[in-house]
Write a structure and sequence with these properties.
The chain has 469 residues and is an all-alpha fold. It is built from 15 helices and two strands.
Length: 469
């Protein structure tokens, strides 16, 4: 009888603990800490209170939409052209493989953040691997990549403005306008507030893609096909690209999923990092479905005459309409990628001080100064966009960092399969980083040498060409 009573009490305690855990998660998602008090102590930001920005207020749905937006940008618009280069069968297979690799990498980011709450960016991972030198090297790579994406986004915004206005003014003016808009919105202090902009951006980009997809489906032929007479789509089931062309195409696919550098910071601002995986799976499911649907459909109807970016495949009028709808999405891409490296600089400069989380004069000077530096440097290096697929290899090392001690005790097939998979991540990431960057540099050189190639600070109409990102 006593045993039965003890068992009943234990069951009741377990249920009560489980209910309390669920209540904690629900309270955290609604806002604030499980106790309902806003004052919390964070391993990255320190004391967060009422008299400053709340850097831990991003819910799982907000995190999901930010994850989508840091990946879904102009990358998706290059997928139809990539399928023509690689062939539709190898292209789709590679897309699925790269999606799987990046989803695993992003999952490791979330798991690593839960194990090491002090991590804010990949620079902190570099510190764990290589001390102060590792932090500076990885921090520099991270910052350059993020700022270069901002530069590419500024050009993308100028392309949209040129397309909509039929090149109403000098392209350099449009780039400067893009810079000012990006600075204003990137200065918003926390990701949970930027997430509201991101909802509109994602829906706008999807709507623009649907306009183009429907347009190429109902038209007799794509805009770049011969105006009259027969025309050949030249659909490539299995492409025959050169090595450099193939690696450049693979690098473009990687770029379409290349949000992992931002995922550390997204996890750092979530109210409950335990919900990171939920956000990730929702985001990746949406993305791969969108990529496959848009990429295959646009390529099927356009064939060899597909434009890159794909918004130009349905003709001048629909291109103007599509760019108008997609413009907020292009702006938000620049905003997020400017916000995150600025936030990294800001945290690095003020971490451990009260000014990090309080609205003091020093706080605002450092914050606005960090955003200003990012957008100015992005403007200067607007067309220099590196490939950061080497992060796949870094994340492979992250998994080994947390699980290498299990090699002597864990003999299961699952552990051995994960070891093999992460070795593959390291090798593949390194190969794509080197060969893909090489191919992209060759393409940038050829674009500059060709008529109409996009050039920074130029007045020429760039709406018929595209930055390499």
């Amino acid at each position: 009888m006593q045993a039965d009573n003890a068992s009943t009490i234990d069951d009741s305690l377990r249920k009560e603990k489980r209910a309390q855990d669920e209540d904690d998660v629900d309270a955290t998602v609604r806002g604030g800490s499980p106790t309902g008090v806003k004052d919390i102590e964070d391993a990255v930001f320190g004391a967060i209170g009422e008299d400053g920005p709340n850097y831990r207020n991003l819910g799982w749905t907000g995190a999901c939409i930010v994850m989508i937006k840091v990946q879904v940008g102009l990358g998706v618009l290059s997928i139809p052209a990539t399928l023509h280069t690689l062939g539709i069968v190898p292209g789709v297979i590679l897309m699925l493989v790269i999606c799987a690799m990046n989803t695993w990498s992003d999952w490791v980011v979330g798991a690593f953040k839960r194990r090491h709450p002090e991590v804010y960016s990949v620079a902190d991972v570099g510190y764990m691997f290589g001390g102060a030198i590792g932090r500076e090297v990885m921090g520099a790579i991270y910052w350059i990549f993020m700022v270069a994406v901002v530069g590419s986004s500024l050009l993308s915004i100028s392309i949209a403005l040129n397309a909509m206005s039929m090149h109403a003014t000098c392209t350099a003016v449009f780039v400067a306008v893009a810079l000012v808009i990006t600075f204003i919105f990137a200065s918003i202090q926390t990701l949970d507030k930027i997430a509201w902009l991101t909802w509109c951006a994602v829906f706008g980009l999807v709507a623009a893609l649907l306009v183009v997809t429907i347009g190429v489906g109902i038209q007799d032929r794509p805009a770049d096909a011969p105006a009259t007479g027969p025309w050949d789509k030249d659909l490539q089931i299995f492409g025959r690209p050169s090595f450099l062309a193939a690696m450049s195409a693979v690098a473009q696919l990687v770029t379409a999923f290349a949000g992992a550098p931002a995922f550390f910071s997204i996890a750092a601002e979530m109210r409950d990092v335990r919900l990171f995986t939920r956000s990730l799976y929702c985001a990746q499911t949406f993305m791969i479905s969108l990529y496959l649907a848009i990429g295959i459909t646009v390529y099927y109807y356009s064939g060899q005459y597909v434009a890159s970016p794909a918004l130009g495949s349905a003709g001048v009028l629909l291109k103007r309409v599509a760019y108008g709808i997609a413009l907020p999405a292009l702006i938000v891409t620049a905003v997020i990628y400017a916000h995150l490296p600025a936030k990294w600089m800001f945290v690095r400069a003020l971490q451990g001080t009260a000014d990090l989380t309080k609205n003091t004069v020093k706080h605002w000077v450092y914050w606005l100064g960090s955003v200003f530096i990012v957008v100015i440097v992005a403007y200067i290096i607007a067309s220099a966009v590196p490939v950061f697929s080497g992060l796949l290899g870094v994340i492979g090392f992250m998994w080994f960092y947390d699980h290498w001690e299990e090699r002597r005790t864990n003999k299961t097939w699952k552990y051995r399969a994960l070891v093999a998979w992460n070795v593959f991540q390291i090798v593949a990431g390194s190969l794509i980083m080197v060969a893909g960057t090489w191919g992209s540099v060759i393409e940038i050189r050829d674009a500059y040498n060709a008529n109409g190639g996009t050039k920074p600070f130029a007045c020429d109409d760039n709406s018929n060409s595209v930055p390499s990102s």
